[in-house]
Design brief:
Blueprint (H helix, E strand, L loop, with lengths): L1 E11 L5 E11 L2 E9 L5 E9 L2 H17 L3 E2 L15 H15 L3 H18 L3 H4 L2 H10 L4 H4 L7 H15 L12 H4 L3 H34 L4 H8 L3 H13 L5 H8 L4 H14 L5 H7 L2 H4 L4 H21 L1
Length: about 325
């Protein structure tokens, strides 16, 4: 077995005491292992296997997210240089301040205002024919509900609200927020002083841990999905095997397609169950309406009365798969 990486981490357990743990990456005949060694309450060293497998990218993802998990519990690397992918809470400038504002907003959001902003987003998304998150994320709405900007210039001081977004939505947002009181004024320099640094550090690493865990889970799911596609599995079978909702499953298939990985077999097999007339209408609708949004394509194919007797979610599924086929055919032409 070859030792590829080794580092120690320490966590304070009292005024003058610390716990020291070690993380290591080893390789043996193409199999990667990640080990975490930490003493228990009696001082006996306990080993936890974080990963064992043949996939380098999955191993790196597992290393990063499990390390972030430990750092959220207070472990600090003795040598910081080998911890790629795990950010430091001691960053400078706008990036660090943005994270502090996000942290504060989670603790001090005005829930009544947050609900009003969600309703505004829902209505605005309907007017523009967009998904609500493209108007503003939940995280962005939390910022608004915590700091309550009354003017466009104040709105622009919040992360994610640049010139384009404020130009499009400042009037609608401020019309709501101006009716609410706030606990502090702009600029927001006062926020950092009121944040407990230890609590913020734990939150910061926890956020990164969750992101990395999602990345790791997605890598594993995509690998298993690809293996299933290569075996000729159906969507129904893959849904059972991966325990992933069909909507997320198709999103993963779209990602594989964007990465240039062949998914034609699955796409063609699933589309074979769709009536030929509906497929033909859908192809024409895509040609007229474009590929970006599916709702106009759906409305082009079916009348509201026809949709009453159909499973709209299943229609969207095969439309997404058909879009993959059309894009591939267009790129190959």
């Amino acid at each position: 077995m070859h030792l590829v990486f080794l580092n120690s981490l320490e966590r304070k357990t009292g005024m003058d005491s610390t716990i020291t743990a070690q993380v290591s990456i080893c390789e043996n005949q193409g199999i990667w292992n990640i080990y975490w060694n930490e003493p228990d309450a009696t001082g006996t060293l306990q080993q936890d296997v974080w990963y064992e497998g043949a996939h380098w990218d999955e191993m790196i993802s597992a290393f990063r997210y499990r390390l972030a998990e430990k750092m959220s519990l207070g472990f600090i690397p003795v040598i910081d240089g080998g911890m790629q992918g795990v950010p430091s809470v001691n960053g400078q400038g706008k990036s660090r301040m943005a994270q502090i504002l996000y942290y504060y907003s989670e603790q001090h959001s005005n829930e009544a205002l947050y609900d009003e902003l969600r309703e505004w987003r829902r209505v605005q998304a309907g007017k523009e024919g967009k998904a609500p998150y493209l108007i503003a994320s939940n995280r962005a709405l939390k910022l608004l509900a915590a700091f309550v900007p009354w003017y466009k210039e104040e709105l622009q001081q919040l992360p994610g609200f640049g010139a384009a977004k404020t130009g499009a939505y400042a009037e609608g947002i401020v019309a709501i927020t101006v009716k609410h009181e706030r606990n502090g004024d702009f600029p927001l320099n006062w926020v950092e002083e009121g944040v407990d640094s230890e609590a913020f550090n734990g939150w910061f690493h926890k956020q990164h841990e969750l992101k990395l865990k999602n990345d790791f889970d997605k890598k594993v799911e995509k690998r298993k999905l690809l293996e299933g596609i290569q075996r000729g599995e159906t969507l129904d079978a893959l849904e059972d095997q991966l325990s992933v909702p069909r909507r997320e499953l198709i999103a993963l298939i779209e990602e594989l397609d964007k990465e240039g990985i062949p998914v034609d077999g699955l796409v063609n097999n699933e589309l074979a169950a769709v009536p030929e007339q509906e497929l033909t209408q859908a192809v024409l609708a895509f040609a007229q309406e474009g590929h970006r949004y599916l709702k106009p394509v759906l409305q082009h194919i079916y009348t509201p009365q026809e949709l009453e007797d159909k499973d709209v979610n299943r229609i969207y599924e095969w439309l997404r798969l058909l879009r993959i086929r059309i894009r591939r055919e267009t790129a190959a032409a």
